[in-house]
Write a structure and sequence with these properties.
Largest sheet: none
Distance between the termini: 26 Å
Number of domains: 1
Radius of gyration: 18 Å
Order of helices and strands: HHHHHH
Number of strands: 0
Strand content: under 5%
Length: 108
């Protein structure tokens, strides 16, 4: 199709072999051992995403504070906080990859 599927597959394998991604997979595995907790984290993530997507500046700031307070009990569980930290690290890795690719391409 594109002519460089093999390279994409190899790069994807490299990303999946990073300590950042492996840590994320391990933290997710640990969290999923408790199905109820995993479901609560899923609800937290969905609500947070919706809030971030729908709200702006001041309204977001005000809602974030009460939102975090509402879920403080969940976030105090180390399995949850370690998973969310690992997830954020993967997101930052993907952002860095995307930014590097975009910066390397001259759209001028």
């Amino acid at each position: 199709m594109l002519g460089f599927e093999k390279e994409i597959e190899e790069f994807t394998a490299c990303v999946c072999d990073t300590p950042i991604y492996k840590n994320f997979i391990e933290k997710k595995r640990i969290l999923k051992l408790d199905e109820g907790l995993w479901n609560q984290v899923g609800e937290y993530r969905r609500k947070k995403f919706e809030m971030q997507a729908l709200l702006n500046g001041d309204e977001m700031f005000n809602r974030t504070e009460s939102f975090e307070e509402e879920y403080r009990w969940l976030l105090s569980d180390t399995r949850v906080s370690e998973f969310l930290d690992a997830e954020l690290a993967v997101c930052r890795l993907l952002q860095k990859i995307s930014t590097s690719l975009i910066m390397a391409i001259d759209f001028e």
